[in-house]
Amino acid sequence: MKILRFAALFCAFSSPALAAVDIQTVTSPGGIQAWLIEDHNIPFMSLEIEFRGGTSLDQPGKRGAVNLMTALIEEGTGDLDSQGFAKARDSLAASYQFDSGVDTVSVSAQFLTENRDQAVDLLRQALTAPRFDQEAIDRVRGQVLANIRSDAKDPSSIAGRALKEMSYGDHPYATSGDGTEDSVNALTRDDIVAAHQAALARDRIYVAASGDITAEELGPILDNLLGGLPEKGAPLPERAPQNLKPGVTVIDFPGPQSTVLFSQSGIRSNDPDYFAAVLLNEVLGGGRFSARLMTEVREKRGLTYGIGTYLVAYDQAESIMGQFSAANANVAQAIDVIRSEWARIATEGVSEQELADAKTYATGSYPLRFEGNARIASILVGMQMIGLPADYPATRNDRVNAVTMDDIKRVAARLFKSDELHFVVVGQPDGLQTSP
Amino acid sequence: MLRYALTTSLILAAAPVLADDVTTFTLDNGLDVVVIEDHRVPAVTQMLWYRVGAADELPGKSGIAHFLEHLMFKGTDEVGPGEFSAFVEAQGGDDNAFTSWDYTAYFQRIAADRLDIMMKMEADRMRDLQLLEDDVLTERSVIIEERRQRIGSSPGALLAEQMRAAQFLNHPYGIPVIGWEHEMAQLSQQDALDFYRLYYAPNNAVLIVAGDVEPEAVRKMAETHYGPLKPSEGIKPRVRPSEPPQLSERRLVLTDERVSQPYVIRTYLAPERNAGAQEDAAALAILAELLGGSGTTSLFAQSLQFGTDPIAVYSSANYDGTSIDNGSFTILAVPVPGKTLEQAEAAMDQVIADFIEKGPDPDDFARIKRQISASEIYARDNVGGLAREYGEALTVGLTVDDVKTWPQVLNAVTPEQVVEAAKTVLDRKNAVTGWLMPKEEVSK
Questions:
Q1: Quick check: B324 pLDDT over 60?
Q2: A2 vs chain B: nearest CA distance in angstroms?
Q3: Among A92, A391, B6, B271, which residue's beta carbon has the most beta carbons within 10 A?
Q4: Cis omega before residue A16 (within 30°)?
Q5: DSSP state for residue A305 in the 8-state scheme
Q6: CB–CB contacts below 8 A, A to B
Q7: What is the per-residue pLDDT for A333?
Q8: Distance from CA of B312 to the nearest CA of A (A)
Q9: Residue B41, pLDDT score
Q10: What is the secondary structure of A354-374 as a DSSP string?
Q11: Please, are residues B434 and B266 in contact by the beta-carbon 8 Å criterion?
Q12: Closest Cα of chain B to A233: distance in Å?
């Protein structure tokens, strides 16, 4: 009964007292917009740039072009070859990362205040005038092919590929943005140049900065850095189909465990019910140890080390996905538990206490996210990509708190379809076959 | 751009030298406390580090330190099973724990005004853990699944585990932190409680509080919550069986049908950082950076990955010396299709031999020094990382001063010291070389 004493103490806290997040919107003299959080405590800044489109801009037969192009941005520019560029960057102690995803090509950079202009200038050359030397193309192509070969024998990647293929028809989302061994081997320098023109353009750019820089200083940097990019890129992809049918797919793979990915249709991030969906997912399979699936599959039954579910929102498709690994003997039981929890939340919703806990978690953790210049810049760009206003952080927790029990019941019934779930099992599970 | 086991040398990331950001004190019962101030965000990270890990386990009980780490979330006389995490999560915080050979640590990141209650709860489970037999058995299944997921499902992890066992002829660093599966399956509630009662005590712990806090307020809270806890009588100096001279190179081949990308990896036994004497370790950290720290400009990269007939798609070198006893120096190469593991290994050995003969390129050396200086600035952006760096250092016998002076020690390293370190440490008698290979296709 001593437990109650602590429980009473817990209730003394309701809403954490956390500072406001002060986002400035900046428009450069040349018309490029950016969001900024100034913080002059540490003499460096983080800059995050995203170009919408990403690997989904690959042309038919050229799968992997945007991915390979992105990996080649740091492989030389002007009179600097790969090594010359790396040495110049490291001498400035700047860092630049270039990544491609299904919907974006992203650039994450950090510059010291003491040599910011030089570091920005070097990044500008790389972004606007990469050399794409044949030597670098072949070398980096070899690395991409090594990744493709590794993924071919990685159970999570195998499961992910199978799900995509079943879900998205002939849309680019249906295949890996890395491409296949054949498609990547066939890419030419001209394909890389075309991918660069298609993906890195000013009509699809989102920018955020955080750290030791003012709004006045940021504008000219943006013009210098990005003004030389083409104005227009390739058309963005259309809406993707959702072809996933209910069932189980077993893919044979050796090992003591099976890796399981499961999915059903999802919800758009601009849907009025989105926050209710976020809270429901948090209760069912969110990142907390106290989420229902963690409790049922791990804590009570010891069937897995970890299980989680996620609301996946691509630009042109949505799904709810989940993942776990379990001993081959236990997979079928774990799947039964998931199906039954899926059905339970759809019909019963959640308890008052679960909703309250999910809300305090969602509202309490939100302001804690804004730590560190790199993290902040990345969050600010993400907000712009999904169309949120700059004052969103001030209202976001109110929106979470405004979700009612009625909303939860309605959205739970609308969202969770236990008879829609498709499980992809990569392993040698006992008593499970592909069906239907 | 490749996803392999080795990460870049985190050891080069250096802590801030701003002395007034870091405050230390020790409570009467022996608990060491470090406060790292960062007032940018009203959040705080509490980390409680115990000076005990897998290398302190009794023979036959491998995995008990990590098993206990899991069981620490199963409740006390005041907090029910699972309620610890549920409380943190209901506040919007995150909590977790991790175990290594030399330490076990528990942490929460939460709004700064919740520090007092977090300390109360962390102090509560330092001495008052209560376990139910059913919870223990279920959790044992969880850690066995964890082993299957992290190790059993990864040929690279299996090879690393075998290599470690071969590297240490006598020292318990040779056992896996998670445990050998046959021993994990036998671990009992009593094993966990024995380990807990002996090692979980204020005089065997380091408390790190990092974030939007004032040192005086932290001291008062720590005295209130941790102050009344009784020290353990059984804490002894951490003297483990040590390595005899290693006279013979060891070589392992692991073949597995799940391997798609063969590679060669070698670990050398290396000296570790020691309190007041970090020079050898610093030279090794810089050696790792020169040999394989960058996929473009390092010596391995230039020699193996560039040119008209490259041998490798990826190569790296890494030094890990933040440990009580021996550290390790690791090199790795992933051959391009058509090249063999033998060729990749020979190429790395040639680079090492050339380096010992010619020494570092002055420009490379200067650039790495420049990055070390800058890393002091970037490191300040990640207060959670700083908390981890101090906790790790203090539980392996280093001091706060050693952490603060590490950047200067790195900066003072000379080219001659790096060559000397390479000569001494990169000796194959001290090394284990592993080849990871796909299983030969058998025609049916």
A1: yes
A2: 5
A3: A92
A4: no
A5: S
A6: 212
A7: 97
A8: 9
A9: 87
A10: HHHHHHHHHHHHHHHT--SHH
A11: yes
A12: 26
In the numeric block, the tokens 């849907």 are attached to: A271
Torsion over CA of B166, B169, B171 and B176, rounded to 10 degrees? Answer: 20
Give the model confidence (pLDDT) of B123-182 as tens digits.
999 999 999 999 999 999 999 999 999 999 999 999 999 999 999 999 999 999 999 999
pLDDT score of A355 more than 60: yes
Quickly tell me which residue has 């751009």 as its tokens: B1
SS3 A413: helix
Phi first, then psi: give them for residue B45, nearest 5 degrees.
-115, 125
Interface contact A295-B78, CB threshold 8 A: no
Distance CA A372, CA A356 (A): 29
Judged by DSSP in three states, B209 sits in strand
Which residues pair with residue B25 across a beta bridge?
Answer: B33
Residues of A in contact with B80 (CB under 8 A): 3
Closest C-alpha to B183, from B286, B64, B88: B64
For the stretch A362-379, pLDDT in tens is: 998 988 888 899 999 999
Q: For chain A, what is the mean pLDDT?
A: 93
For residues B231 and B28, what is the distance between their CA atoms, to the nearest angstrom? 10
Which of A290, A297, A355 to mutate: most B Cβ within 10 Å?
Answer: A290
Q: What is the C-alpha separation between A221 and A342, in angstroms, rounded?
A: 50
Are A29 and A223 spatial neighbours (Cβ–Cβ below 8 Å)? Answer: yes
Strands B312-320 and B263-270: unpaired
Residue ranges of alpha helices (H) inside B33-80 are 64-71
C-alpha torsion sign, points B197, B199, B201, B207: negative
Contact at 8 Å (CB) between A250 and A425? Answer: yes
- What burial class does residue A68 get, using C-beta atoms within 10 Å of its C-beta: 0-12 exposed, 13-18 middle, 19+ buried? buried
**Mean pLDDT throughout B65-86?**
93
The Cα–Cα gap between B331 and B338 comes to: 21
Q: What is the DSSP letter of B262?
A: -
Q: How confident is the model at residue B19 (pLDDT cuts 50, 70, 90)?
A: very low
Is-catalytic flag, B223? no
What confidence score (pLDDT) does residue A92 get? 96
**Residue-wise pLDDT tens digits, A111-156:** 999 999 999 999 999 999 999 999 999 999 999 999 999 999 999 9
pLDDT per residue as tens digits for the range A77-95: 999 999 999 999 999 999 9
d(CA B238, CA B169): 18
Q: Nearest CB to A256: which of B2, B152, B381?
A: B152
A20 DSSP 8-state letter:
P
Domains contained in chain A, CATH given: 2-226 (3.30.830.10), 247-374+387-427 (3.30.830.10)
Q: Which two tokens stand for residue A337?
A: 């538990």
Answer with the residue of higher pLDDT: B21 or A261.
A261
The average confidence (pLDDT) of chain B is: 92
Q: Name every residue whose Cβ is closer than 8 Å to that of residue A214 and which is 6 or more positions away in sequence.
A: A38
Percent of chain A with pLDDT over 90: 90
Nearest residue in chain A measured CA to CA from B310: A139
Q: Any bridge partners for residue B46, and if so which?
A: B108, B209
Across the range A298-307, mean pLDDT stands at 93
CB contact under 8 A, B153 and A90: no
pLDDT tens-digit readout, B402-425: 999 999 999 999 999 999 999 999
Residue spans of beta strands (DSSP E) within A101-236: 104-112, 205-211
Out of B37, B69, B161, B272, which one is annotated catalytic? B69
pTM of the model: 0.92
- Among candidate residues B224, B229, B233, the one with its CA nearest the CA of residue B198: B233
User: Phi/psi zone of residue A196: left (φ > 0), alpha (ψ -120 to 50 degrees), beta?
Assistant: alpha
Q: How far apart are CA A153 and CA B251, in angstroms?
A: 25
Angle at B325 between CA B324 and CA B330, to 5 degrees: 110
